[in-house]
Design goal:
Residues 6-93, 94-180, 181-266, 267-351, 435-522 form the Fibronectin type-III domain. It comes from Urocynchramus pylzowi. It holds the Pfam family fn3. This is FNDC7 protein. The chain is mostly beta strands. The protein is 0% helix and 54% strand. The strands form 16 sheets. Strands 3, 4, 6, 7 and 8 form a 5-stranded antiparallel β-sheet that branches.
Length: 713
């Protein structure tokens, strides 16, 4: 096995310190060595560094410190023994500068004390290489370079030296002097945006600029890297003092001399609008700071605009009713016009309605119409009179006032209203009077069959009263200016409704309450009496208008016959034959009104004869015999059979008559009745049946068949 030995001990040629934290060592190369270990020892502490070859540097050392430096060679066989040491002291540390530019032409440099330093050397030169270098040595820890160029970048280098004059590490710092104040500052004010554009000539070395606008305690700023800047959000009616300061990394310049800036005036406030009298508007406002004069614009809603220039705080304008005016006030100064403030609108009272018309549509109701007017949202119609006022409100141009008092004068006024201003108050009224009150019928009295007197309570001195009786039969009127009138020629059997109205130049009243009126029923025009039997008479009559029931009466000294019926006929019994009667009829209405009607007298028929008998005569004839009820009456005898009809009429005063050549073998009906000069023979006298038989010859036997027995003559 081949063993590799550690390399030889190196020999240090020199060791020195150029930096405060390191020492550089040079040595001779050792054959077979692959690496070298450098050791710097300070008392008990040491720092080791492995390097490949010479020279080598040990770092991480302390400034101004004495170190023992050794070198050991290294290969795979191990490390050699340390070389003989060399003592080397590290140089001084570099001063750490604190640099500032207190003014645009100076730079102040300061630093902390450096260990083991005997003095310091500081140099300054423009970084662009122009100009000469300035250098100062000092034992102090600060100094100032003056008479420098403003806004210029300088390079500053400083180092410390020890008592032997050996320099230590140096420290380099670049510092710019602060800029000079800008010049030629210009301020341009934008009145519309309330901002100012400030511009200036650029200054050397300035990186940024700051513009300050001061007004009292208020300060507005804007920063820029260019040569102009906009200061926004200026306040109106304010005076600002504008200055510009230049900045760079060294600091700031002195601010420029302030430039005065007066902004536009603020919009006027406390604007008030008064209509001191109809047709005149007074616009007033509060005074505005920095306002030199004012302009008031008044624009109506029809597009017309007027304006007023004044240095005072009020203006007068003419106005019309029913218009809305839009009012704005501007203040002016040299900077311009104030911003738009409050735009007030003022609506004048609407115009009074025109083309006013009032028409009564009933006695207590009037319809009022008018032409629409400008500015009116609502109309109020007021009728004042009587015991109070009647109101009507509507958006339409018509109104109906009802429940007015009759016979009353009213002043009717139409007011127009608007939501913004209220009502017109100077509208003229119109006088109207209502129609008379309805009369009240107090009494209706009958003064005759067709004459009615009507009385009422009058309620107006100037009224004419008209009374009307209205029924199916027609209309009847009477007129009077007093409290009564008479209705004439009213038809019988009719129902009427009687009412009254009052008329005056103001109109016609409502009709009074109707009073029912009924006239007595009419008497029947035709009355017919027909004798049915010897003791019964039938009476019939035509309808009497208005009658519901009838009472008929036949009356004679021998007695009375009466009937009460709903019909138009009646059978009266117990009539005495051959008697003169008076005939009367009463027509009675549903309500009990009665008309008494009289007619021509009535005579009952002559009495029928009695004791009728037949006797056979020798000449094939028959004699009819009866007992007459009145010797002055003439009679007629009729025989009716299947073989023929036969009759005979005796002379006046006789009670028999003969019929010749009557055939036998037949049954005959025999009727003997009085003969009258008023018409046909009576038919209600009793009939008797006789049988005439033949007994071997033409002469027969007469048999009475009335009771199933025969009589032979």
């Amino acid at each position: 096995t081949i063993s590799i030995l550690a390399p030889d001990i190196p020999v240090i040629d020199q060791a020195y310190s150029k930096l405060s934290n390191s020492i550089t060592v040079e040595w001779r190369t050792v054959p077979g060595a692959t690496n070298y270990m450098l050791t710097a020892q300070d008392g008990d502490s040491f720092v080791e560094t492995i390097v490949k070859n010479s020279p080598g540097t040990v770092t991480g050392l302390k400034p101004a410190t004495l170190y023992r430096i050794t070198v050991r060679s290294i290969n795979s066989g191990g490390k050699s023994q340390p070389s003989p040491f060399r003592k080397v002291k590290t140089v001084l540390a570099a001063p750490i500068l604190s640099v500032r530019s207190p003014s645009c032409d100076s730079i102040a440099v300061s630093w902390k004390a450096v260990h083991m330093a005997a003095g310091f050397s500081v140099s300054l030169v423009r970084s662009d290489g122009l100009g000469r270098m300035l250098k100062q040595n000092t034992t102090n820890t600060s100094l100032i370079f003056t008479n420098l160029d403003p806004g210029t970048l300088y390079t500053i280098k400083a180092y410390a030296w020890n008592a032997n004059g050996m320099p230590g590490d140096d420290f380099t710092y670049n510092q710019r002097t602060s800029p000079n104040a800008p010049v030629d500052v210009q301020v341009a004010f934008n009145s519309g945006a309330l901002r100012a554009v400030v511009s200036w000539m650029p200054t050397e070395g300035a990186l940024t600029y700051s513009v300050t606008a001061s007004s009292g305690l208020l300060k507005l700023r804007c920063n820029t890297s260019s040569a102009s800047c906009t200061v926004p959000s200026l306040q109106c009616s304010s005076e600002y003092y504008v200055s510009v300061t230049a900045y760079n990394d060294a600091g700031s310049s002195e601010p420029t001399d302030a430039v005065s800036l007066k902004t536009i005036p603020c919009a006027p406030v406390n604007i008030s609008i008064e209509e001191d009298e109809p047709g005149h508007l007074l616009v007033s406002w509060s005074s505005v700071s920095l306002g030199h004069y004012y302009v008031v614009f008044v624009k109506s809603d029809d597009g017309l605009e007027v304006h007023c220039n004044t240095s005072y705080t009020q203006c007068h304008f003419q106005s019309d009713c029913g218009f809305t005016y839009f009012i704005s006030v501007f203040a002016y100064n040299k900077a311009g016009q104030s911003p738009l403030g409050d735009v007030l609108n003022y609506t004048t009272a609407p115009c009074c309605p025109g083309d006013f018309r009032a028409v009564f549509i009933s006695s207590d109701t009037v319809r009022v119409t008018w032409a629409p007017v400008r500015g009116a949202d609502l109309y109020e119609t007021r009728a004042a009179g009587g015991s109070g006022a009647v109101l009507c409100r509507d958006t339409a141009t018509a109104c109906t006032l009802s429940a007015l008092q009759c016979s009353t004068p009213y002043n009717i006024t139409v007011y127009s209203f608007s939501e913004a201003r209220g009502s017109s108050t100077s509208c003229a009224p119109q006088y109207v009077a209502t129609a008379p009150c309805s009369p009240e019928i107090k009494n209706i009295s009958k003064e005759g069959l067709s004459v009615i007197s009507v009385q009422w309570q009058p309620n107006s001195d100037k009224a004419t009263y008209v009374v009307t009786a209205r029924g199916e039969a027609g209309l009847w009127h009477c007129t009077s200016t007093r409290n009564s009138c008479t209705l004439m020629d009213l038809p019988c059997g009719s129902a009427f409704s009687v009412s009254a109205i009052a008329r005056s130049p103001a109109g016609q009243s409502l009709p009074s309450y109707s009073i029912p009126l009924e006239t007595a029923p009419c008497c029947p025009n035709d009355l017919i009496l027909t004798q049915v039997t010897q003791s019964v008479t039938n009476i019939s009559w035509s309808v009497g208008r208005g009658a519901q029931t009838y009472v008929t009466t036949l009356e004679s000294p021998k007695g009375q016959a009466k009937c009460h019926t709903l019909q138009t006929y009646c059978l009266l019994g117990c009539i005495t034959c051959g008697t003169n009667y008076t005939v009367s009829l009463r027509a009675i209405s549903e309500t009990g009104l009665t008309s008494s009607c009289t007619y021509q007298g009535y005579s009952s028929s002559t009495c029928c004869p009695s004791g009728v008998k037949l006797y056979r005569l020798s000449n094939n004839g028959i004699r009819v015999f009866w007992q007459a009820s009145d010797e002055t009456i003439k009679y007629n005898a009729d025989l009716h059979g299947s073989k023929g009809n036969f009759s005979c009429t005796p002379s006046w005063g006789l009670s028999h008559c003969d019929i010749t050549k009557i055939p036998c073998g037949d049954v005959y009906t025999v009727v003997v009745a009085p003969v009258t000069d008023k018409g046909p023979q009576l038919t209600f006298c009793p009939k008797k049946i006789y049988s005439v038989t033949c007994s071997g010859s033409s002469v027969g036997t007469v048999i009475y068949r009335g009771k199933s027995n025969a009589k032979h003559i």
